[in-house]
């Protein structure tokens, strides 16, 4: 996406193959190793955000779908959690029309989650003094917004909503959150990184404090799972689709399963 | 496919990333570079043919489909060329039943080729004194057999059928050709390599002579295209589906197009 020039692309591929050989080792976490490779390639191509158009398209289509769903469906917190997970299922930037996407989501709404610990999450949300919401990709963040609105209605907790400091792949940045009005729902906080997920030893001091002081941490998508699943911490709830074989294996679920699962 | 051991797999992935970084350069041909990487991994895993089961399954399903088609359809050389290309479309080892595969092929038989130079190929086959047929993958080789039978019926040429010396991915080896009765149709010849396609500076002397002396060379699939498309040689006809973006771009056709095209 950074260039149409085939030779420049080829040079980028050769660089990428060397970066992968360097980053890929025994203990590598794909979200972190992958992000380092992307950042190097951004520099090589002289582009700060090659996914800009992709994200714009995702956001535009997701917005239409979310507006339609909100007008059509009665949304409570249970439904909102499911919608947030369904937002993780869909790649909004691919060829489907908003109408088709909306139909897909309505169909999936009727199906059960493979691991469904929504009751526990709702119970914890009601008790919490501070909640941290870790977003994933642009487009689905508008589905996260539905859930955060319901959390706000359900709980008196202080709500923090985290985004990345700088663009990395199609992840939600602090700028995206501000632009889409998340400050009306809670405090927007930067993780301080340009890395997919939450690499705890690289986050900002500010984020670290919010993280430590939260009673419930809602972690969307595979990147957050990859970086947080080995910390056994019961405050964390993972909302995601198990898209890749390794994540499905870790969760002991079939690939493609939809999950609301407490960590630990 | 070489092992179920996750740690062994991880070590193999780390090795693969280093092999890719070494093999991937400005002038690399994916078929050749890829084959070298596979051969190193075969050694690492201590397996001479990790695709053995995959190939067995492909062969078994393709055999059922071919037997049904031969009983149902009147086959002339035009249809046989198309069937050989359609054999290249299908991954026989994936989940579909032979019945579903047969239905798919019958549907595709009615559709035109994106580049259709069958008339020219048939004309050249009729005139030829020697014809060389370069096979591609196991499974589709039974579709090639239908075409070779028609060539034998149409032409008085000496027919050579080439396979790989040793197993590489799911390519047809000399052993596969002998096992499936190709010696009744022509002379089976080894390319002398364990490399996808026909890397002209690595082939055996015997193969080189057959190649030089043939009037028509029929090259199935992308691997043969990758290794022979830059030699401008009008004796070569490519039969393939343009599966990857780079091959489609070179051929100036949409990805997924079915092709019968003279080289040069």
Tell me about this structure.
The structure is a homodimer of 264-residue chains. Chain A has 264 residues and is of the alpha/beta class. Chain A is built from 11 helices and 7 strands. In chain A, strands 1-7-6-5-2-3-4 form a 7-stranded mixed sheet, sandwiched between helices. The mean pLDDT of chain A is 96. At the A-B interface, helix 1 of A face helix 1 of B.
Task: Please tag this protein with its features.
homodimer, 264 residues, seven-stranded mixed beta sheet, 7 strands, 12% strand
Offer a concise description of the structure.
With 264 residues, the first copy, chain A, is α/β, with parallel strands linked by helices. The first copy, chain A, is 51% helix and 12% strand.
Question: Helix and strand layout, with pairings?
Answer:
The structure is a homodimer of 264-residue chains.
Chain A: H1 6-23, H2 30-45, H3 52-72, H4 77-89, H5 98-109, E1 115-116, H6 118-127, E2 130-134, H7 141-154, E3 158-163, H8 174-179, E4 187-190, H9 205-213, E5 216-220, H10 221-228, E6 236-241, H11 245-251, E7 258-262
Parallel strand pairs in A: 1-7, 2-3, 2-5, 3-4, 5-6
Antiparallel strand pairs in A: 6-7
Q: Secondary-structure element order of chain A, as H and E?
A: HHHHHEHEHEHEHEHEHE
Report the principal-axis shape of chain A.
globular
**What's the Cα radius of gyration of chain A?**
18 Å
Please state the oligomeric state of the protein chains shown. Answer: homodimer
Strand order of the largest sheet of chain A: 1-7-6-5-2-3-4
Structural class of chain A, by secondary structure, is: alpha/beta
Report the helical percentage of chain A.
40-55%
The average pLDDT of chain A is 96
